[in-house]
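In response to the reviewer comment on reproducibility (Comment 2.3), we provide here a single inverse folding case reported in full, input and output, so that an independent group could reproduce the run without further information from us. The structure tokens appear first.
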């Protein structure tokens, strides 16, 4: 697949769609990379209740709102998007923690 053109260089709708597809593919690749960090972080969590880290979530959402504003995106939407992303990753980390760490402590999973 050839490199996507910049938006202002596209000569037709097909080139626009190729650019969007390339970005979406990269977003998915980055989400998988983020998953690696999330699952790796589980080893540093002393118990399941520490996974949600509500203070960290609040700080993250504030940062993402600022980043959205810097990029001229709707901060309200970005906050909603990351609220959902964070919630899903917390769930994945919880499941991973239960499977990996609770089981090693001899507790029922």
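Designed residues, in position order:
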């Amino acid at each position: 697949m050839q490199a996507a053109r910049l938006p202002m260089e596209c000569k037709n709708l097909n080139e626009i769609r190729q650019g969007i597809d390339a970005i979406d593919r990269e977003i998915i690749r980055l989400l998988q990379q983020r998953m690696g960090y999330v699952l790796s972080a589980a080893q540093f969590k002393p118990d399941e209740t520490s996974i949600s880290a509500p203070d960290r979530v609040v700080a993250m959402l504030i940062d993402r709102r600022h980043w959205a504003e810097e990029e001229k995106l709707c901060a309200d939407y970005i906050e909603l998007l990351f609220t959902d992303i964070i919630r899903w990753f917390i769930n994945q980390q919880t499941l991973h923690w239960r499977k990996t760490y609770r089981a090693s402590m001899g507790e029922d999973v």
